[in-house]
Amino acid sequence: MASTSDIRNGLCIKYNNDIYKIIEFLHVKPGKGPAFVRTKMKSVTSGKVLDNTFSAGHKIEDVRVETHKFQYLYNDGEFFHFMNEADYTQIRLLEAALDNPGLMKEGQVVTILINTEDDMPLSVDLPASVILEVTSTEPGIKGNTATNATKPATVESGAEINVPLFINEGDKIKVETEKGTYKERVKE
């Protein structure tokens, strides 16, 4: 058993007969009244996000997890297939278990959290940012970059991301995986 002082991003807990992963948390100590912890949790089974407040000192049941490096192989339409880099075993996951499946490209290495009690995969964590090639976008117009105007662009993984007007087809861009937003253009 853990308490609210052990809450951190990425912690997996049992709550309401389900397993949730802490996405965000904030310890609040108001001037009047007891302290509490405000959390945003994501269900690892359904993907539903839940806002919850725990009073200070509240006991929570944490889930023991292990992290393993897996390589993303392919998507067959229903399942995403991954291979363990250590022992070459393969697993398949539904799209609901993935935070941002549109930003994964074949061969990419991801971290998968696995519940040690029943060896079930809980969630897939992508790197903080990925480099993807722009496959289609409207051509940029010279001199139209004075404002923060953006345009939609499709990247090699199939995701659509808003990019600045100066980005063209064939450019490589760095994308933040947590928000799915453009970060910068990558020069080769």
Compile the SSE list and pairings.
Layout lengths: L1 E2 L8 E4 L2 E11 L7 E8 L5 E7 L3 E4 L2 E11 L3 E6 L5 E5 L14 E7 L5 E5 L3 E9 L12 E6 L4 E5 L7 E5 L4 E6 L2
Antiparallel strand pairs: 1-6, 2-3, 2-6, 3-4, 4-5, 7-8, 7-10, 8-9, 10-11, 12-13, 12-15, 13-14, 15-16
Written description of the protein model:
The chain is mostly beta strands and 188 residues long. It has three domains: 2-62, SH3 type barrels; 65-125, Nucleic acid-binding proteins (OB fold (Dihydrolipoamide Acetyltransferase, E2P), Beta Barrel), CATH 2.40.50; 129-186, OB fold (Dihydrolipoamide Acetyltransferase, E2P) (Beta Barrel), CATH 2.40.50. The protein is 0% helix and 54% strand. The protein has a six-stranded antiparallel beta sheet, with no helix packed on it. A five-stranded antiparallel beta sheet has the order 9-8-7-10-11, with no helix packed on it. The mean pLDDT is 85.
Observed structural traits:
188 residues, mainly beta, SH3 type barrels, OB fold (Dihydrolipoamide Acetyltransferase, E2P), 3 domains, 6-stranded antiparallel beta sheet, 5-stranded antiparallel beta sheet, 16 strands, flat
Please identify the structural class as seen in this structure: mainly beta
Count the DSSP helices. 0
Rounded mean pLDDT is 85
Please give the oligomerization state of what you see: single chain
Q: Strand sequence of the main sheet, in spatial order?
A: 1-6-2-3-4-5
**Share of residues in helices:** under 10%
User: What is the level-2 CATH architecture name of the largest domain?
Assistant: Roll
